[in-house]
Amino acid sequence: MKPFAVGVLLSPARGLARHWPPGARAAPPPAAGSVAQARGRSNRAAAAAAAGGGGVAMAAGEGLVSVDYEVFGKVQGVFFRKYTQAEGKRLGVVGWVKNTSHGTVQGQLQGPMANVRELQEWLRKTGSPQSHISRAEFRNEKKIEALEHKDFTILK
């Protein structure tokens, strides 16, 4: 019997890597600010990483926004929170995501307006591979002077 190969399975449509066998790592993550790390991010997020900013990138004249959201449909038990966190990080958006007791997923997004809009569209139409989104609602959108979160976190 041949042993399993340790490697990374990529899902190009989702931009996420899966390791096989589970728990195995093929290689350490790329160094912070490297070109390899910046690949797969939006141009703004890649530019920030390459510049060593490490945080949310902002285009000239573009302000920060905060928006609350709730996603309805088959969004629990399908790794929706994990994929939302990964997509938020890829786009350079911070905030949080959690399951609710009534079967939805809620959270908050903060970042440059264009990046937040891109994540809103992802929440409306894409989600995790096994999810089925019936609708996404966005409320309390406001301009903010500074980010209130350091990262994109999953709340229990």
TrEMBL record:
Looking up SUPFAM superfamilies in the UniProt record yields:
Acylphosphatase/BLUF domain-like (SSF54975)
The protein's superkingdom reads: Eukaryota
Record keywords, A-Z: Acetylation, Hydrolase
Q: Give every Acylphosphatase-like domain span.
A: 66-156
The GO terms this record gives for MF are: acylphosphatase activity
Q: Which family does it belong to?
A: Belongs to the acylphosphatase family.
Q: What is this protein called?
A: Acylphosphatase
The source organism is: Dromaius novaehollandiae (Emu)
Starting at the broadest rank, the lineage of the source organism is: Eukaryota, Metazoa, Chordata, Craniata, Vertebrata
The gene from which this protein is expressed is ACYP1
